[in-house]
Give the backbone structure.
Amino acid sequence: MFGIYLKRELSRRKKAALVIAMGLALGIALVITVTSVSAGMQQAQDKVLKSLYGLGTDMTVTKAQAAPTGNASGRPKFDFDARSDSDDTQSSDRVMTQGGQALKSSLVEKVAAQKGVARAVGALSLNVTKVDGSFTQGKAKSSTTQQQGGGQGGPGGGTSTGQPQVQGGGASFDVNSYSVAGVDVAHQDLGPLATSKITTGKTFTAAQTNAKVAVLSKSYAKENKYTVGKTIKISGTKYTVIGIATPDSSESTTDVYLPLKQAQTLGDSKNKVTTIYVKATDSKQIDTVKTTIQKNIDGTTVTTSADLADTVSGSLSTASNLATSVGKWLSIAVLVAAFLVAALLTSSAVSRRVREFGTLKALGWPSGKVTRQVVGESIVNGLLGGALGIAIGLAAAYTVTAISPTLTAQLGSSGGGGGMGGGPGGQGGGPGRQAASTTMDIALSAPVSLTTIALAAGLAIAGGLIAGAMGGWRASRMRPADALRSVQ
């Protein structure tokens, strides 16, 4: 009886049922869209962070760069010989550590021994500035001037020689700057090389701890026409290119990877590292581990992914803030409005059915049965609205994923030593790269999880129950006498 009556009443009031369902559908669709876009932005932000500090890295340990003392300015200095032969090309490399003040390698083991630390790996970040070109020697030439005769009785004229003047000469130099990362070849899954995949050649082996071999980033190798098997010369030392690495992100922050010992020799930083990459035993205890390291190891800066996320700016950060603040409250407002509209429409529909419910009560229907009837109709309307809302929300999320709008993420320095981004290859040193920021382009997607769909279904049922509760409460208060009055 309940099902038959329910079906008949919904068939009779198709327009009213459709209006209620559409109101709920719009609210639910907006919730799905905002939730999926927020999830996509979170994924994009995670991709930016992981591309910089590496998958599996929970935090980094660095030390702020000390201020120059005395006459030391910290600026590069290049020395060239004064040669008379203009055909000779001169070249000079300046190798400097970057990403903060160098730390003793022994600190890596000390960090690894801290409570809550699963592993710790050291890396050395270098910046190489190469200047090459040639001087052209100028030539001194004397100028002669013809003089005319002077006064009466004087000589008839002559020539005079002026002071020699240097003509020609000059210098033409090219400046190229690139970043070098010293990698612990025994633990490549944690550290600067963890953000890239070897697409050509091979990576380092555990036996190449001090071998003169190098892995180049794809962009740097393409720009300078390096291939596997060729050699790259850095500060007078030749390294054989054994592999080409493609970064997981759209841009590589490191150009050249060397075994850690070779990088330490190159940078005159024996037994030194600039960044210690740390993986915690429990990702939920990262803040506790950070506090422990800072307490037990003085003078260091510990940067977590959460700290680094606070420095992300650009369109990605702006859109993420809008989605989590404006979008969230807009979804709540629309959903609440949809629930209220559904409740008011259901209550209004009950008012128009006074004769019907009064007659049913006169025939012996108890108030509870009348209430269940109204609630049942509202729940069906809610489920219908939920189905429509899920369909609209999925279509909107699919559209966002198909369009894949590009967002820009700019990562600023988080403090001493550059934090995670200031590790090997972090914000480093070449033309067009700033020491304080790195910019990346990320395509936005809108993934819809089963949790989101379950949430939508729950909201649809909740909306039906709220509307049914209001309508059912009003219907239960009706008396059979109300039906007789409406007939008159």
